[in-house]
Description:
By secondary structure, the chain is α+β, with helices and mostly antiparallel strands. The chain folds into two domains: about 1-230, Distorted Sandwich (Acetylcholine Binding Protein, Chain: A); about 230-350, Up-down Bundle (Methane Monooxygenase Hydroxylase, Chain G, domain 1). About 35% of the residues lie in helices and about 30% in strands. Strands 1, 2, 3, 5, 6, 7 and 9 form a seven-stranded mixed beta sheet that branches. Strands 4, 8, 10, 11 and 12 form a five-stranded antiparallel beta sheet that branches.
Amino acid sequence: MVQDMRFAQSSFKSILAGAMLAALSAAGAAGHAAESATSCELPRINLSERPQVAGEPTKVSLGLILIDVSEIDDVRQQIFPDFAVFKTWTDHRLKHLAGCRIELSRIWSPEIVFMNSGRVFPALSALAEIGPEGLVRYIQRYRGSLSFRHALHEFPFDSHIVRIGMIPVRSDRHALELEVDESLIIRQNEFTILDWTFGEVSGRIAPYTHVVTGGEVNVFYFEVPATRLYQYYVWKVLMPLMLIVAMSWSVFWINPAKFGPQIGMSATSMLTLIAFQFAMASILPHLSYFTLLDWFITAGTGLVFVALVESLTTSYLVSMDRSELALKMDRVCRWAFPLAFVVLVALIFGV
């Protein structure tokens, strides 16, 4: 295992993701030159079968470098990553080919696919690098979209675990023994995406029962915590909505005898809030359940509507010569509505 670690780290230990891939391209050209100078002919044996040593499972070491994340789509539940996958295993039948680069289709390789649905596209040639004692390393870079199922009940103050899963196919846990190459569980310091922050990455192996065969296999999970930057929604959604709700309270300082300006202000507040919600529809996720932001918008809308009802009530009381009761209602509402709004905000956001 120590030899495996040294071999896997030799070219990539201190290289960031972007520089690593540039070096890999240069190494590819050097590898082809080496093949022309040395014999890289495969032995005349069946290399399509799994290398077996006394019936033991083949150990496969997995690593993943997260190079970039360009987008997280809350509506379609997808993430758009750019990453490199490292697979390392030992095939003693190839030990005389050290330094060669062989097409992956010509030798046995572990069939490991992504558990996340979506579409990712390989960016590098399918070449395996042969090291000392038959140590084989295959590196591939992928770009595209992967499913990222995440509940948005806490939106826009939500945090999630972004998980990329890889599962062996056509083999059980007794045929392959997956290991995490901790030296190659890395992420780039900065990503293209601007409205999320990412924490420290980790890799783990976990048992999984296959939904088709019912057999149990071990799967590899690459995980990184992601936290949404909520400041945009605070300044662009929450603060304007608070101002609109506060604007509706101005009717409590208008003499109910002047029912025209009072009802006009209440109606204006209600229409402004409705127009604001239509404007926000394009930037908010379309969900079948309520998020924190939905609860906040609903609570604000309810208070504005109640303020409209209150202004209609006081105008009716004035028309019935009950001006004193109307004025008393306005005085109570001047502090009752702001207090109710503060309580609702505390309940919704758990302040």
